[in-house]
């Protein structure tokens, strides 16, 4: 009997295993079937290279998919909950419309939590708008291939991420085919070459915790060198809020000038010098564009910008002319 039922038991065990596998696959497919937050359309197109495009927001509203709910016991429940969560979160941007003409710089200023970073996330297509359209070069970002988007839009965030590897590898990540001369030229443009050249191993110096520790300003300049190698036509920049020593800060400012030249840029600006140089300032408040204009125009208007300016920059006795209204 044992010999008869043994294989049957084994078979049913197998069946159970098979069933489990099928159920697992079902679950996997349910997850895979989930619409990813960002997807590339089958008919996606590429932007023309070397043409500096304009950026346009048309009536853009956005809410983040919520992430504050507790995990539920099963995968299916979690998946469904994830779908539902977005519906409960508030709109972070509401009907935002503006243009950044090709080759110009727009500075975003405004109180903390106003939606400035969120605006920049939509340009690099970290998220799609809940409604409305973000265009680059006249194309809805959702019409573009990921490759084209990656090539077109360069991002420099406050905390430049560096791999625990040599400076050379960290740079080649932006343009794997770059020659030695091109690496040096980018480092010179980013005002970081003098430092690299002074290190015993030069470009082959290992950075990171167990290697050469770059300061905040140096890391940012290396990130700018990467940007110069990548040559994007659109730059999204979150200017550092960290107080750099004045020498480092002046170097970062010079590097940024090179990086933003002849590109279309959207900058979360914290420094008065950047704000003054902007072709256009957008004052973001409560998820909308409250004011727009140049530094002088907005000061004359006497609205929120003027208020931020006077509290942040024009305080009697204030020596700090670097931090803007952001975070006020
Ligand atoms: P700050 O100057 O402080 O950086 P900000 O103007 O850049 O602020 P955002 O970071 O865009 O503002 O945030 C706008 C709103 O969106 C805030 O209420 C914030 O809490 C919310 N928010 C930001 N990121 C997320 C996220 N990943 N999920 C949910 N809500 C978010």
Automatic annotation (TrEMBL):
It is a multi-pass membrane protein. The keyword Membrane applies. Keywords: ATP-binding, Membrane, Nucleotide-binding, Transmembrane, Transmembrane helix. GO terms for molecular function: ATP binding. It is found in: Cell membrane. Residues 55-311 form the ABC transporter domain. This is ABC transporter ATP-binding protein. It comes from Amycolatopsis pigmentata.
């Amino acid at each position: 009997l044992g010999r008869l039922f043994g294989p049957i038991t084994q078979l049913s065990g197998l069946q159970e295993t098979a069933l489990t596998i099928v159920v697992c696959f079902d679950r996997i497919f349910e997850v895979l079937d989930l619409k990813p937050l960002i997807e590339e359309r089958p008919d996606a197109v590429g932007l023309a290279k070397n043409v500096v495009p304009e950026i346009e927001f048309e009536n853009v509203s956005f809410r983040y998919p919520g992430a504050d709910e507790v995990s539920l016991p099963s995968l299916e429940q979690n998946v469904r909950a994830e779908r539902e969560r977005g519906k409960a979160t508030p709109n972070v941007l509401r009907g935002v419309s503006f243009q950044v003409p090709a080759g110009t710089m727009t500075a975003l200023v405004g109180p903390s939590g106003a939606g400035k970073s969120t605006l920049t996330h939509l340009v690099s297509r970290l998220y799609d708008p809940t409604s409305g359209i973000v265009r680059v070069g006249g194309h809805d970002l959702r019409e573009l291939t990921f490759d084209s988007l990656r090539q077109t839009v360069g991002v420099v965030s406050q905390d430049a991420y560096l791999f625990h590897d040599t400076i050379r590898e960290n740079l080649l990540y932006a343009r794997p085919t770059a020659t030695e001369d091109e690496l040096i030229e980018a480092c010179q443009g980013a005002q970081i070459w003098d430092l690299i050249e002074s290190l015993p191993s030069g470009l082959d110096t290992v950075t990171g915790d167990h290697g050469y520790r770059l300061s905040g300003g140096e890391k940012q300049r290396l990130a700018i060198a990467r940007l110069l190698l990548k040559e994007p036509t659109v730059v999204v920049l979150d200017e550092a809020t960290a107080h750099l020593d004045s020498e480092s800060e002046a170097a970062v400012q010079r590097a940024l000038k090179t990086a933003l030249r002849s590109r279309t840029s959207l900058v979360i600006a914290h420094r008065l010098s950047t704000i003054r140089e902007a072709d256009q300032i957008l004052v973001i408040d409560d998820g909308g564009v409250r004011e727009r204009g140049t530094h002088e125009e907005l000061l004359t208007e006497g609205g929120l910008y003027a208020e931020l300016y006077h509290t942040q920059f024009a305080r009697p006795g204030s020596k700090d002319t670097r931090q803007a209204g952001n975070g006020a």
